[in-house]
Each structure stands twice: as structure tokens, then as C-alpha cells.
Amino acid sequence: MLGFPVKHSLSPAFQNVAFAHHNLPHRYEKWEISPAEFAAFLEKARREDFLGLNLTVPHKLSGWEISVRRTPAADATGAVNTLFLDEEAGGWLGHNTDVGGFLETLPDAGYSPAGQSAVIIGAGGVARAIVYALGAGGATTLTIANRTANRAQAIVDTLQPLLPGTLLQVSGLEPAEWPADRSLIVNATSQGVLEPDRPFPIPVPAMNGPANPPALFYDLTYGQTPFIRAVRAAGYPVLDGLLMLIYQGALAFETWTGLAAPRSEMLAAAEAVLAERLKGKTS
Predict the structure, then answer these.
(1) CATH architecture for residues 2-95+243-282
(2) Which residues have CB under 8 Å from 232's CB, separation 6+?
(3) For 125-168, how does the pLDDT look when each residue is reduced to its tens digit (9 = 90+)?
(4) CA-CA distance, 234 to 214, in Å (whole number)?
(5) Are the C-beta atoms of residues 228 and 262 closer than 8 Å to each other?
(6) Active-site choice (7, 44, 60, 281)
(7) In the chain, at which end, N or C, are there fewer CB atoms within 10 A of the end residue's CB?
(8) What is the pLDDT of residues 179-207, one digit of tens each?
(9) What are the pLDDT digits (tens) for 216-264?
(10) Which sequence spans correspond to the domains of the chain?
(11) pLDDT digit string, tens, across residues 4-22
(12) 4: phi > 0 → left, psi -120 to 50 → alpha, else beta; which?
């Protein structure tokens, strides 16, 4: 895992469980690599026969740029979070497992995007991946709600040609502007990381609107974020980003090894680390 910073990543805990499950000799490590060091580290990885790499902020665009081949999900999102060394192709295969990882979590909540309307709050890189995932999953209408309209419009302009069966549209943060038939609300903002103590600015009942049964709420950040606290306090169904983290990691593992990832074991490993961290904060 390459990132800057990266010290709080859960990925080594659950990826090493997956390698151990299959009795593989590989070891998953996290490396804090600045953008200036990125190219040199990739050369090191090739020389030392790394199986693959995961990328997080700020390297996903750079990973896309250096990939000699890319999967459709990587091409559509303009970001790569998984690299696989493909010597036959002469370099790195770039993949974006956020798309498949997100979609894989939805059946656990009894939700299918097919024929549905959803609202994605935020217009960053992860929002682009979620819009593409939901469109590929058959959603009919996707509304990107963002304070800055031009950033949301950039996602529409890029992805609408790739998703002809889905209407992509831009909205502000006022829920009265959102489609009345919305059944999924995804928080793709970074507030849970950057401002964990500030209340989420949009009231939950307003976000739900007239949906009956209630909409499914989904925060792409894991833990007790302001969004998750507000949704739970209001009594609505909500998912956090932990399962997506595990499932996108499982897809990366399968890309590297060709073996089925032990998802339940990987989730248990991540939950154990989070429990230890929480214990450390309260002791």
C-alpha cells in the first residue's frame, strides 16, 4: 500500500490474513511514499518482483497515468487503486476495485441499484467511482449533489457517454432539489475524516424525503462519522465504508493471486484492529 500519509491503513491487517489463508509466502506492507518518490518506488517494485500494489491518496491519478493497460473501471473513473505487474504487457495493469467493492456491499443491505434513483453527496474521485458503479449496476437516475456545481458537472460530462441508460444530473445540497423517488443516499464527502466533530449539515429527514420505505443511507467512511451518527439517531438504515474497504481489498487480492479472497476472515481482522484502536482511545 502506497500513500501519503498511510499509517492508519487497515489493509495490512486483512490482506495478510488472506495470504495466510492460502499459505502464500507474500507479505503486505504499507509504505509512506510522497509524490516525488512515487516513480522511483515503482521501479524498485519491478526490480524486487513485487506481486502488486495498492494505491491511496495522493497516488491514484499517477497510478492511472503509468498503467500500460487499464480495466474499464479504471478508465471510466480516471483513478487506479490496484496495480498488478504484468510483464507480458511490459508494465503495470491498473484497476479500480472501489467500483466492484461498492457494488458487492449492496446485496448485504438488501439493495439493488437496478431501476433505482440515488443521490451521491460530494464530487471528488470516490464520488466518480460510485456514480460509475451505480450506473453500471442499472440505476436509472443519479444525482450528484455538491456545493460547487462545476465539479459535479465534470463527473456528468465524463461519465454520461459511458452510461447511456442512466440519467446523470447535478444538484445543490438542498434535498428539495433532489428526485422524490430517491432510494439511496451516499455520502462521498471527506467530512468524516476532516471534520469528525462537526454535525452533518443536512438534516436526515430532509435527505430521506418522501421515501417510503426509508431510503438506504451509506457513508463511504467507516466509523462513527457525523453522517452515520445522525442517520442512526434518526432511526434510518445505514451502512458505513468498512465493508466496501474489505470487498475492494478482496478484489485486489483476487487480481494479484487469482484465488478467492476469504472475505469473512478479512473483515474479522479489520474489526479486531478497530476494536484495539478504540480500546486504546478509551483506556
Answers:
(1) 3-Layer(aba) Sandwich (3.40)
(2) 238
(3) 899 999 999 999 999 999 999 999 999 999 999 999 999 999 99
(4) 11
(5) no
(6) 60
(7) C
(8) 999 999 999 998 777 787 888 999 999 99
(9) 999 999 888 999 999 999 999 999 999 999 999 999 999 999 999 999 9
(10) 2-95+243-282, 100-240
(11) 988 889 999 999 999 999 9
(12) beta
User: Which residue matches cell numbers 455520502?
Assistant: 187
* Residue 279: active-site member: no
Q: Which three cell numbers stand for residue 66?
A: 503509468
The CATH superfamily assigned to 100-240 is NAD(P)-binding Rossmann-like Domain (3.40.50.720)
